[in-house]
Amino acid sequence: MAAKKGAAPAPLEPKVAKKLLDLLSTDNDFRRLFKKDAHAALVKAGYKAPAGTDPSTAAAVSGGACLQLKSGDRIAPKAQIVRDRAKLESKVTAVMHFEGAKLLKAD
Predict the structure, then answer these.
(1) Domain presence at residue 62
(2) Number of domains within the chain
(3) Residue 57 maps to a domain
(4) Tell me: the pLDDT tens digits for 21-74?
(5) Do the domain assignments include residue 3?
(6) Is the per-residue pLDDT at 99 higher than 70?
(7) Which DSSP string do the residues of 16-84 spell out, in sequence order?
(8) Which domain holds residue 53?
């Protein structure tokens, strides 16, 4: 189903959230991809857009737009992601309302 215009993205599936956090806490190449393009990183972590999703809105539907760091922001260190894993996992598997990037930003 295509996303409604202005609707918040659906929560990430738990297995995608787990893979996302696994990669963010261990893989430097993935961390660079995530900083550059959160949607592409989500796809690499296993996210699949719902059937009929307009490619021009894919990042908004996936939550990539919510998780995208601003150009000057630093991604949280691996140790911080490991430390806060339970909180992060519960947040990214809930509707994000464009606050997700704050969770993965360095303190």
Answers:
(1) yes
(2) 1
(3) yes
(4) 999 999 999 999 999 999 999 999 999 888 888 888 887 777 788 888 888 999
(5) no
(6) no
(7) HHHHHHHHHTT-HHHHHHHHH-HHHHHHHTT--PPTT--GGGHHHHHTHHHHPPPTTPPBPPHHHHHHT
(8) 14-103
